[in-house]
Structures are given as C-alpha cells and as structure tokens.
Amino acid sequence: xxxxxxxxxxxxxxxxxxxxxxxxxxxxxxxxxxxxxxxxxxxxxxxxxxxxxxxxxxxxxxxxxxxxxxxxxxxxxxxxxxxxxxxxxxxxxxxxxxxxxxxxxxxxxxxxxxxxxxxxxxxxxxxxxxxxxxxxxxxxxxxxxxxxxxxxxxxxxxxxxxxxxxxxxxxxxxxxxxxxxxxxxxxxxxxxxxxxxxxxxxxxxxxxxxxxxxxxxxxxxxxxxxxxxxxxxxxxxxxxxxxxxxxxxxxxxxxxxxxxxxxxxxxxxxxxxxxxxxxxxxxxxxxxxxxxxxxxxxxxxxxxxxxxxxxxxxxxxxxxxxxxxxxxxxxxxx
Length: 334
Known about the structure:
With about 325 residues, the protein is α+β, with helices and mostly antiparallel strands.
C-alpha cells in the first residue's frame, strides 16, 4: 500500500490598483436622503397623527371582506407574481452560494482498476497473474478573504436578493391596488346604474302624471313632450350605465382570473369606510415604497460590482491541499 499526502500553498499575484471604496461612494443613506426633502405644509401633519403605521394590512381600512378576498385571489392567479417569486428563489440560492465561498471546498475522487497478465511457467505450462488497484483522493481548497473580495460578493448577492424581494413586493402592491380600484369601480358603476333606474322610474311617474293633465287641458303638449324626452334620456342612461357595469365586471374578472365567467357581483350597499388616517408628510412614505427600495438596492449592488472590479486587481491568497491513498493487490489465478 502506498499513501501520499500533499499540502501546497499558492499566492497568485496581479497588478495592484487602488481607488476609493465604491461602496462608501455609492451606498445610499436613507435617513440623510429623506432628511433633505422639502418641508411639508403644516396641515399635512394636522390632528396630531404622526403617520401611517408600518404594520397592518391597508385593505382592512376599507372594511370590505369581499375586496380583501378578491385581492388575495388576484395575487394567487397572477403569472407575473409567480415569475417574481421564482426570481426571488433564484436570488436566495445565489446568496447562499456566495456565502459558501467563505468555507473550504472539498472534492473526493476514487479509482479502481484491474489487470490480468499471462505468463509461461518453466516446463511449458501457462498461468495468469491478476492485479487490482484502488485509489482514493481528497482535495481541499480555501481562499483567504485578504481584501474583502468574498465579503463584497456576499454583500452584492444580498443586494440583488433585496432588490428582487422589493420587486416582488412592488408587483404585489400594484396588483392589490389595481384589484381594489377595480372593485371600487364596479361598486361605483352598479351604484350609478341603480341611480339611473331610480331616475327612470321617477321620470316615468312624471309622464304618468302629466298625460291626464294634458288631456284635461291643465298642461299643454310641450310639457308632455318635455317629460317624455326626459324619460327617454333616463332610459338611455340606464343602458350606458349597464355597459359601464359590464366593463367594470370584466376588468375585475381579468385581474382575478375569472374571465369570462361573469360570476362577480357587488353588494347592494357599499361598505362604510372608517376614518382614514392622515399620512403626515408624504415624502416620508417614499422610504417605504418597494419600487424605490428596489432601486436603492440596485444602486448599492452597482457600487459593489465596481468594488469587485477593483478588488480583482489586487493579490489573492488561496491554499490547496490534497490527500490520497493507492493500494495494489496481486494474486495468482487458480
């Protein structure tokens, strides 16, 4: 049996360059950024309300379980969100992979071989000599994070993950907002349709009251023509409002993935809204917008990539080790 062990350290050198830290140069200080926003009018902070709380579901403020259910249905049926979620999972995997660069990498090898050789024995006979060989090897390598290149790569992967997560949150917020607005538009269209029907019924009563008075000579023909004209306008308004209601229903069905089932109906009475909170200075809400958070993360990621290019010009230090064993077994054939 033969055992071998090898430990080797290598230092790979390249031309060196120095530049200011791109991370420090491009990282966004959120507090400093929004502290420079123009002062808001005093009435934006009226009634002693500091602002919208960061916790809680904004849909709850509408006091409409039907709206909340449709929003959840739209989020579950939207293919864009499925794509964003897949991108987020991929970014999470890349972030985990980047963290793996901190640790040694290991690989193992194995080999097996056999030989059979024929020999002529003294006296004219023949025989065969069989041989088998086994080999096992273990290789390990580790790069020392001399200049922070590995840490920079981890931070870059984290920034990309944060940007992807913010993209998903922004898409969810957009779909939820569109669905809520479509539901409100449907309720409004149906309410306007009910008003148009009530208007038609009222004008029909006016015509019914005007006709006998015209026959009695109390009113002239002009009053009757005016009443009938108003009735015709009310009838046309009903048709127009029903078309608006149909369009609003179809728009909502598309968002929740039910088109063209025509199953959606709005309640006869629109839920009463609770008092809405004053948001305070609107510029303060910018720091909580997911689309802006995604842009900030990508700015940081761009700075980290620039820093990575600079660090690639600096020396790197890595260690490589390997251990192996070989065994040969020779036996005579029977």
